[in-house]
Fold this protein.
Amino acid sequence: MIMIKIRMIEPIIVRGSGEFGPYVIGSRNFAESLFIPRPSTIAGMLGSIFFHENDNGTWREKLKKIFDNQGIQGLIGPLIVTDKLLYPFRFGDSLALVENKKELLEVVNSIIQETHDYWEPELYSLFRKYSIERYFKSITKVGIALDRDKKITKESYLYYEKYVMPKEGLYFSVIVLGDDKNLSSLDGRIVNLGGERRVIQLQVTSPTVYADKVNDINYVENKCASYDYYLTLTPLILKENVNPELILTGKVEKISLGYDISHGKRKEMVNTILEGSIVKKDVVLSMIDTNYSFLGYNTVLPLLTVSDDP
């Protein structure tokens, strides 16, 4: 088992839908990067390093075959790390990266106990302190669309892109399970990430610095249900509709898994519970599509147990 840390050399743009604001109609369009790349983006980047042209099948089957050939059992993450693991925490559309697990647990316990007067100010305080925007710089670029056939600009057709850049000392990391003998050569390698082919550097290291956390983080299907609540570190892909009462905080959203370059089409849309959500164990036990777990989706951290279910 190794950890691959991803160092951004330039600002990145990774879009969940793979589209330039498809719901905007008119002469102005935009693309805004996610702060955290989807697991399929990271898995695709690693798969492209070992890709062979004669690989056949769906995009997921291709990646599974590539990973199997390299002795990779699967990925966990991406996780967000500095010198320690950061905990994504979502409340609706707001996302925080909490540095102190104890602070997170205090707020979560208050929400479970429904002590509204107590948890609401604490929740706002937590987001002011750890809002994800604190950890990233945003760069906006404006351009004019091109008519590729005529090789001229499209009159009045402006667009803008919003890139993000992690601040110094913050990395996206994935834990690689299985045989790592072929992966040490990736240390220091410069590769491209995502459809925009942004430049990144890979750093191969041991996850021992996070050992107390890594032992708990794993695929959904490998976790016993000894905890009542779980924190989603990456999106959980649902195989069925979920009862809202099973989600303590967070958001359910339909997302795209990206673009299949080899087949020239969009990958499938799936229903997910987004990263940073807190879910009850029933979700973990029976509602997750585990076919995507080897890519890094469905990564959870057991959070807490309560004596009486609220």
Summary: Residues 81 and 171 are 5 Å apart (CA to CA). The radius of gyration is 20 Å.
